[in-house]
Amino acid sequence: MDQAALDAAYDQRAYAPNQPQITGRYATNSEAVRARLGAPRRHAYGPTAIEALDLYPTKRDGAPVLVLIHGGAWRGGAAKNYAFAAELFVHAGAHFVVPDFAAVQDVGGSLMPMTEQVRRAVAWVYRNAASFGGDPNRLFVGGHSSGGHLAGVVLTTDWAKDFDLPPDIVKGGLCSSGMFDLKPVRLSARSRYVAFTDEMEQALSPLRHLDTLNAPVIVAYGTFETPEFQRQSRDFAAAVEAAGKPVQLVVGEGYNHFEMIETLANPYGLLGRAVLAQMGLIS
Prior knowledge:
The chain is an alpha/beta fold. The protein has one domain: Alpha/Beta hydrolase fold, catalytic domain (Rossmann fold, 3-Layer(aba) Sandwich), CATH 3.40.50. Helices cover about 35% and strands about 20% of the residues. It is built from eleven helices and eight strands. The protein has helices at about 5-10, 20-35, 85-90, 110-130, 145-155, 160-165, 180-185, 200-205, 225-240, 255-260, 270-280; strands at about 40-45, 50-55, 65-70, 95-100, 135-145, 170-175, 215-220, 245-250. The protein starts with a helix and ends in a 5-residue tail after the last helix.
């Protein structure tokens, strides 16, 4: 690829002209879900204002928990606009959690602070699950786009070393439309707003840390996504399989990047069915 092609390959808007329409639906559908479920419980997981999460509880006690990490190119997105999938999981018998975290431009261009925030949010859910009727031993993580990258980072976290927690606190994960090796991302136009370093590239490339992966992974992408996002997902799934660890590759025929995550809200959708099955909520 020349530079222009590489830049476009890491800019989903170049391949999804209907992006404003779809992301607008995230917000309006989330509002509709809150009208039916009620406002989420808001819990702080850290000391700053952004370090809080939305919890949509299910009525079942001792229920599994799904933590969904929102996307937004590391510089946008908000928990409130990812409630559109909450209704499915709450009615299926799972607690649904979406954390907020800092945008990269608000923390000096580094991905490290948001990564640590997301990890701490997951650790908070594990430690506090019983207090809201969740089962800490059935904690699952999912993410989309830049959130798919962050989900990959969470799944390859050394929980025992970094948090003094069991190494397998996460029992399964969804990495939808994510990035798993930051080297090519660093070469793209995203380096204009992310201050990549060698340390960051190495530490936050999930593909390079599969030794600490302790959970089955669903890797998903749409055929109308950019060529690099498709390749990144295929390569990550292949690497997980080569490492002898369980992985399911889900390919959304005819879906673009922004449309893929909407299928998480449908029990018959590609991602909704896959994650419900991973959580043991359908056979």
